[in-house]
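Prompt: Have a read of the protein record below and flag anything odd:
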Amino acid sequence: MTNSIRVDSPISSDISQKTQSLLAKLNEIILDKSHVTKLALTCILANGHLLLQDLPGMGKTTLAHGLANLLGLQFNRVQFTNDMLPADILGMSLYHQAEHRFEFRQGPIFTQLLLADEINRSSPKTQSALLEAMEERQVTHDSETYALPEPFFVIATQNPTQQSGVYPLPESQLDRFLMCLSLGYPSEKAERALLAGENRRDLLQQLSAIMNSADVIQAQQDVKTVFVADVVIDYILKLVETTRQSQEYHGLSPRAVLAIKHASQAHAYVSGNMEVTPEDVQAIFPAVADHRLGQRFIPFNQSGHKIQQTLAEQVLTKTPVLSS
């Protein structure tokens, strides 16, 4: 794996200030979940797709709407249902009888940020319609290829697979998501604030864009220049090696290794740094690795804390940080 070239110049102060302002505003909507909101923005700036998995009513859709509004991107929302067809997302050909020709009518996927709400309530055939778009940033219809706008992201929400009426996402689909996050129950303090404060939907409508398409694309380019030292690369490889020694699940793939590196760079960038530390790797590792290791649901207690370590957190515990 090649290393990044060290860049001594600081990140753009303008972009950095916008990033911090965006997080501050988002944390006014999603209360007491600053770790999750930071990871969600990290995922976007790493040019990755985000999967939000939790019980209904936990704020998944609110988080997605908040990100879309603050990033200033073109936005479409699709509510997935069990009778939805791929054409409902990608688009379809309409025949113009007078002109004796077909015209491709673009579907809602032709946007910069697509919210695929409750994606696992649709059939596997409809779910798979997103695969090419998420991987190649394009749609193929009747042998014609149509490029998607830049930047392009999918933020998908899904309910736990233990609930009725859902179709679990296959591993190939899960692997297209850079991160999978769960909000968990709110703390008592946050829930009290929810009851005493304004409706979240009203607050969303008051949000104005802090960044725009050009800012997001520039930030994505800056992320690629964040320096990753050899010792950090070694630490990432050691974590991946630990997953491959398990007899309980499949180890992480080379694609996952690259995902960990890119997400670590983005996390350092969002933190205002131009060099990745082991702490950046540890911060993003569960979000990048758990859904690839087969962690389908993360149980939370009534205070919003995990009941037990996830698979990726267990790997972090077993793998010591390497010294430089």
Summary: The CA atoms of residues 214 and 303 lie 39 Å apart. The longest strand covers residues 91-96. The longest helix spans residues 13-29.
